[in-house]
Amino acid sequence: MSSSSCHRRVLLLGQKHHVAGRFLKRPLDYFSGFGSDDTDLIREVVRDMLALLPFSTNIEEAADVPQALSILSRWQPDVVTLDLQLPGGNGLDVLRAIKQAGLSSTVIALTNLTDPQIQQACLAAGTAFFLEKSSEMEKLPAILGTVAEKRQDS
User: Fold this and answer.
1) Beta carbons within 10 angstroms of residue 135's beta carbon
2) How far is residue 71's CA from residue 14's CA, in Å, rounded to a whole number?
3) DSSP one-letter code for 8
4) Residue 77 carries which DSSP code?
5) pLDDT reported for residue 56
């Protein structure tokens, strides 16, 4: 597992703060993200998208279910990207553990599984967003902006 931390200043545009194509009412001092995928390239893409956010970001990642559960047992990130096909279990196992632990992390399922029943199972288990990796990754920056905006309002 690799872990990186990226500290950036908030990009100020007039009196507003810009994040992933959205304007925030005030800057976020901190935002945390967790990526779980068995593919190095997808973890790298998610890590890079999180690192581009214009404020302090803590990013951790896992390549399998045991790693994901270990990290999430000691840390509550603002957002979790979750592959559904992971060694040592599956993403639904991780999603259920997140919800059972009462974590308020926003979960984004990233998968190549396109079966509508799988999507329904994820949404029913608490996934906020469901993206197909090969065709919908470009939506992730806007979704991260939405999550940051909601965090700001809470």
Assistant:
1) 10
2) 38
3) -
4) -
5) 53
**Helices 140-153 and 40-51 sit at what angle, rounded to 10 degrees?**
50
Write phi, then psi, for 83 (nearest 5 degrees).
-75, 145
Give me 68's structure tokens.
């994901």
Give the CA-trace dihedral at 6, 92, 75, 79, to 10 degrees.
Answer: 40
Tell me how far apart the alpha carbons of residues 130 and 9 are, in angstroms, rounded to a whole number.
30
- 119: tokens are 């999507």
Contacts of 73 (CB under 8 A, 6+ apart): 101
Which run of H or of E encompasses 28? none
Q: Closest Cα to residue 43, out of 110, 123, 135?
A: 110
What is the biggest distance separating any 2 CA atoms in the chain, rounded to whole angstroms?
48
- Residue 28 CA to residue 19 CA, distance in Å, equals 10
Number of H helices, E strands in the chain: 6, 11
Rank 11-20, 71-80, 122-131 by mean pLDDT and report only the highest: 122-131
Over its C-alpha atoms, the chain yields an Rg (Å, rounded) of 15
3-state secondary structure of 22: strand
In terms of residues, how long is the chain?
A: 154
Total-model pTM:
0.75
pLDDT value at residue 154:
63
